[in-house]
Amino acid sequence: MRILSGIQPSGRPHIGNYFGMMKPAIALQDEGDAFYFIADYHALTSTHDPTQLQENVRDLTIDFLACGLDPQKSTFWRQSDVPAVTELTWILSCVTPMGMLERCVSYKDKIAHGISPSHGLFAYPLLQAADILIFDSNVVPVGRDQKQHLELTRDVAQKFNDRYGEDLLVIPEPRIREATSMIPGLDGQKMSKSYDNTIDIFEETEKKLRKKIMKIVTDSTPVDDPKDPTDSYIVQLYKLFASEGAVKVMEDSFRAGGEGYGYYKQTLFEAIRDHFAPMQERREKLVKDTAYVDGVLEEGAKRAAEKACEVTDRVRAAVGM
Ligand code: TRP
After folding, report:
1. What is the value of pTM for the model shown?
2. pLDDT tens per residue across span 44-63
3. 110, 212, 227, 307: which one is catalytic?
4. Domain ranges, residue 280
């Protein structure tokens, strides 16, 4: 079983990225043949500074390795090191009706958030389809926001197979992480870079991390009054890091009253800091070991290219090239 997922290098990963994509991807390394990549072609739709793009790729590679991605178990590469995927994108685009892409909400959503409406941004879901189909992927673990792109991938693969021959492309199954579908940011909206409400997994300093957590929006219930834990963003975030027992302690304390929100924020801060501490330590070592990090990506690209070549040959022959 091939498991595939990609992540855009669009700045430092935050807690939403970690629980939505990185952690489940890392856990799946033991379940099958895991293929993970850094989607720098996709990032080109929004990152226009070459130095920035390169730095983002390097940082994310290191962050992923620090969080537990094991290059012995997984194939891990940089998307643009396997350029065959752009060829497949073109071939797929010739079986894709315009309306299918026009219905994608991510395009409209990104424009609404100020990303310039290029053709690349419009065609983004099709490049993603090629990413998946070029490796005969069976399972694609993604966040809820990627559901539509997975449906499009399946539809496009089916259209291709209908035109050129059954079983040419493997139809992938999405695996949507429902449990962590909505991780609130500091303001309670979905945590997202474009909403400027993120908590990064590796904040520069502890002080910065604490300062951010202290900014989480709360209501203005007085210290002594009982508080409702169900709608609290503090509790929602705490659930990601603490045991059931610890969460219950916090919830009971909310209901009892007597503590201010600052107290709970401090508890949350400590939980987040402790959770990422061992990864932070690994990260510091990796930052200094450029040769190792480059070697991982190089080896990954080699393995990925081999598989991509197999599928591309099959597809080229099928369409008459
Ligand atoms: N679009 C995905 C995101 O923003 C990233 C991505 C690109 C991806 N190609 C992919 C995810 C292929 C899964 C499979 O999160």
Report:
1. 0.89
2. 999 999 999 999 999 999 99
3. 110
4. 203-284
